[in-house]
Amino acid sequence: MSANHALVFDLNVERDRRATMPQRISLADALRRIERSSQWLAGAQLRVLAFSANTLHDPVIIVASHPRVWSLFSGRAERTGYRQDGALRYEVWEGIDHINHVCIRWLEVMACAA
Q1: 37-72 pLDDT per residue, tens
Q2: CA 10 to centroid of chain Cα atoms
Q3: pLDDT (tens digit, 9 = 90+) per residue, 16-34?
Q4: Whole-angstrom distance between the N-terminal and C-terminal Cα of the chain?
Q5: Angle at 4 between CA 94 and CA 79, to 5 degrees
Q6: 10 φ, ψ to 5°?
Q7: 94 and 80 in contact (C-beta within 8 Å)?
Q8: Dist CA 24 CA 45 (whole Å)
């Protein structure tokens, strides 16, 4: 069984690389990235719920949870956090749109059997 190494992606390495890079982007550039990435997500029939941008980091788009999100970021997503509320567990997932340099986040609701 062979793996296509071009598709293997380590989000931690990418995040560490971006954290050490001194980068400043203009808000106009961040908004252009968000616009292009939002169009790509809309083409995949995903709903954009919110976005944020600043001059120190790549912009972030928050999308509604949907199986198509998993399809787009299959093997390239990472759970970045979680919260427990009674019997429900909320997990925050993140993938990166490499073409537009935008982080895509979504929230998954998991039922817990306690």
Answers
A1: 999 999 999 999 999 998 888 899 999 999 899 888
A2: 13
A3: 766 666 568 889 999 999 9
A4: 38
A5: 15
A6: -110, 110
A7: yes
A8: 31
pLDDT at 5 over 60: no
DSSP, res 6:
T
User: % helix / strand / coil in the chain, to the nearest 5?
Assistant: 30, 35, 40
Give yes or no for a contact between 33 and 100, defined as CB atoms under 8 angstroms apart.
Answer: yes
Q: Which residues have C-beta within 8 Å of that of residue 103, sequence separation ≥ 6?
A: 58, 59, 60, 61, 94, 95, 96, 97
Is the dihedral angle over the CA atoms 49, 56, 24, 77 positive or is it negative?
negative
Look at residues 88, 87, 73 and name the one whose alpha carbon lies nearest to residue 40: 73
Strand boundaries in 1-87, DSSP class E: 48-52, 60-63, 77-85
Which residue is listed with tokens 């560490």? 16
pTM (two decimals): 0.75
Largest CA distance in the chain: 48
Provide the residue count of the chain: 114
